[in-house]
Every structure is written in structure tokens, then in C-alpha cells.
Amino acid sequence: MGLKTAALKKSIWVFHVACSPCNNCDIEILDLLTPRFDIERFGIVLVGSPRHADALLITGVANRHVTPRLIETYRATSKPCVCFLFGACASGGTFFKGGYNVPKPVDEIILEEDPNAIIVYIPGCPPKPEAMIAGVVKALSVL
Amino acid sequence: MLVFNYLVFPGLLFATVAGLLTWWFDRKVTARVQYRVGPPWYQCFADVVKLLGKEVVLPENARRTGFLLAPITAVAASALVAAMLGVYNMNYGTGFVGDIIVFWYLLAIPSIMLILGGAASGNPLASVGSAREIKLLLSYELPFIIVLTMAILKAGTLSLGGIIEYQVGHGPILYSLSGVLGFIVALICVQAKLGLVPFDIPEAETELGGGVIYDYSGAALGAFKLSKGILFYTLPIFLITVFWGGIKIGDGWGILWAVLKYVLIIALITLIRNTNPRLRIDQAMRFFWGKLTLLAIIAFILSAIGI
Predict the structure, then answer these.
(1) How far apart are CA B8 and CA B13, in angstroms?
(2) Domains in chain B: how many in total?
(3) What integer pLDDT is reported at residue A132 of this predicted model?
(4) I need a labelling partner for A75 at 20 to 30 A (CA). Which of A27, B59, B104, B121 fits?
(5) Closest residue in chain A to residue B48, using alpha carbons only
(6) B193: Cβ–Cβ under 8 A, 6 or more apart, which residues?
(7) How many CB pairs under 8 A join A and B?
């Protein structure tokens, strides 16, 4: 493991991509920053721009309007980057799957753009903050 | 020797290590204030190493030369200030007439490079950030230069080495009424120079998403972070040198006193950062050109009549 990878594992900057979620997952994400969970002790910080990010935190189903913007955001992120599909909607589509406004699941959109993308699924409606931390740990063990 | 001073001690390498540790201290104290645990001590090193190893995404409509040169120039200028300050504090005789003006210029260069880089990246959010950075630069330079002039007037010399020598003979400038007022003004200007919370208007994570550095990624962003880290070490040392008698490396207790002064200034900066919300740009300009300039002029007049 090189110095670059070691440093990357200790400092993951996350950009939150809200692909029309219902806000349940977003509230759970904000929980991660509170004193109870405090992910800054692992070096995880929320940033305001996809260019700074090492990880994209995608919530919600990507509908027709959001899909091109999601692809654009993925291309704007500097690689290497990890995609976290946060919540049941982003991971599997749940009952929005096959809807008239949902062309494709989120993971297929990203894999079409970049076949080597690292994708982590964190199911749950909404997933607990502990599940999110466990997902991050699993993703880091793959890097 | 010159190259060693610039690159290793007390220049680039030493200033980077000290500055990133200071930055970590600031983040850790902030976390403890918010009842969190906070990052481990190597956090800022991990951030910078990671950024230096990442891909640089060039935006489609960026001016490439300016976009890539700006962060490098910012690092070079801040490392040069750190090296010069360290050398002046190690042997008092060095320096030339008018070098305090050189310091003033060099300390403004990282901000100017942020403006250039933000404008060159061709992003609307970054250009809004650049406009705000220009306004902020214009507003804090006025009180800053007035209190520097006050120090120059008190010491009766235009060189930083001369100001240190004056303070060795007559006691630090801080130990007088005008000195205290001037130090307060300079401390708030340093807060704005570092872009910390009441004055982080150009970066404004929550409204501009990074502002001037919005389109920077990978190594270029890492260079800007490195420059900010070096300034985190350099600006408090500059304050100590001009107002608080410099760092007496020669005698035994001097270095301990210097560290205590340094930690006190950092604690004050962190305190200001944690107890204030972000100002709007017009509020910041009114604050700097109104209250703070008035305070600086009062300090200047007091020092002119010898209080």
C-alpha cells in the first residue's frame, strides 16, 4: 500500500449528490456530523464542490431530469473516487423502479459512464448512521 | 545556506510541518468546543498528501496557465515569508531598509493568487468568490497597513530587523496602550488573511461551495491548502515579531516563551472563529473601514504622542 492510498484512506472528503431524495437519508447523513457519531475523527468531511470530493454520496432515485446532472457530477469529480449509493432508493430503486420518470437505476448510470467505478451499496430506508460508517469501512478495505 | 533556509529550515518544510500541526490544533479545539472528538494529529498531513496525489481536473473554460500557476505562486510566496521571518529572528542583524514593505507585499500575494485562480477557473461561483476576495483584501489591508506604520513609527526604522532590535532595547511594542490596540487590529486582520470563520466570505462552503477554490482539484487544491497551512504558521509569527518582541532563540527560556506566545495567539484566533457567525461582505467592509480603521488611527495617534 503506497503513501497515496494510505493518505486517501485517512481523509475521505464527501460530496452529497441529492438525486431527488425524500430527505430521510439526508437527515441521517447530517446525523453523522453531530457529536454522537462525529465522522471527522476518521477524517471524513463534507465538502461543497464535487472537484474536492473523494466520495460521492448519492441519495434518491435518478429521474430523467437528474440523470444528466448526475453523470456530469461524476465526471467533474477527480479520480480515484468512490460512489456510495445511500438508502434503498439509490441502491435498488424500490417501488420507483420501472416508473415513467425513472429511466435507469443509479448504479447502471454510473457504470455506463465509467465501467471501473467503485460502487458501495448501503440499503435501508433510511440506513442508520452506523450502517453508513460500516459501508465506508468496507469501501476503504477494497481500495 | 540560502537554499537550505528557503527549502528546509525555517522555510518551506519546517513551516509546512508547523503550520499543518497548527491547523490540526485549530480543528481539534473546534471539535472539542462542539463536544466532538475531532481528527487525529496527522489529519492535515493526510489531507495534503492525498490531494497532492490526486488527479487535477482542468475545467473546460478555464485559462490554463493562470489556473495552474496561481497555487504554485501562493505556496512560493508564503514559504518565502516564513523563511525570511525565521532568518531575521535567528540573527537580528540581517535585513535591509524597507523590508517590512516587502513582507506586506508577500503576505498579500496568497490572497491575490486566490483571486487570480478563482477568476481563471471560469466558474460563476468562483468568480463571485473572487469578487468577494478582492473586496475583503481591500478592506483589511487599510487597518493592517496603519498599524504596521504605527510599529514603524514607534521603532523609528523601516526594517523588520530594526523593529526587533528596538524591542530588545525598549521592551515589546505590545506593552503600551497603543501597542495593545494595534495588536488587536492586526489580530483581526490576520483572521481575515487566513480566511477563517467570521471572514470566510470568499470561500463560504455553505453558500458558494468553496468559492474561489470551487473548481480546483487534486494537486492544485493541495497547493492552496499547503499555502494556507504555511500562512497558519507565518502570520502568528509575524505578529509576534512586529508587536511582541520576536523569538529569542539564543537564550534558554526564549524558545519556550515564543511557543507560549504562539499558542496564545492561535488560541485567540480559534476563539474568534468559534464564537462568531460569518459576516456578509458589506458588513465586513463596514467593520474594517469603519470601526477597525478608527481603532487603528487611535492607536497611531496614541503612539505618536508616546503612550
Answers:
(1) 5
(2) 1
(3) 86
(4) A27
(5) A7
(6) B107, B111, B140, B231, B235
(7) 87
Measured in angstroms, the CA of A36 and the nearest CA of chain B are apart by: 8
From residue B246, give the alpha-carbon distance in Å to each of A45, B20, B276: 36, 22, 29
Q: Is B40 on the interface with A (CB under 8 A)?
A: yes
Q: Where are the domains of chain A?
A: 3-142
Q: How many whole angstroms separate alpha carbon B190 and alpha carbon B101? A: 16
- DSSP notation for B198-262: GG-TTT-HHHHTTGGGTT--HHHHHHHHHHHHHHHHHHHHHHHHHHS-----SSTTHHHHHHHHH
Quick one: what percent of chain B has pLDDT higher than 90? 43
- Tell me the pTM: 0.89
Q: Cell match 508587536: residue? A: B243
Looking at residue B264, its pLDDT comes to 92
Detail the DSSP E strand segments found in B11-147: none
- Cis peptide bond prior to A80, omega within 30° of 0: yes
Fold for A3-142, please state it.
Rossmann fold (3.40.50)
**Cβ A114 vs Cβ A10: under 8 Å:** no
- CA–CA separation, B264 and B105 (whole Å): 26
A-chain CB neighbours of B213 within 8 Å are 49, 52
Residues whose CB is less than 8 angstroms from the CB of residue A137 and which lie 6 or more positions away in sequence, other chains included: none
Option in B46, B49, B210 nearest A48 (CB): B210
Q: Does B122 touch chain A (CB under 8 A)?
A: no
Q: Which amino acid, B69? A: L
Residue with cell 471524513: A44
Dihedral sign for Cα B238, B190, B178, B263, please: negative
> Is the per-residue pLDDT at B250 higher than 70?
no
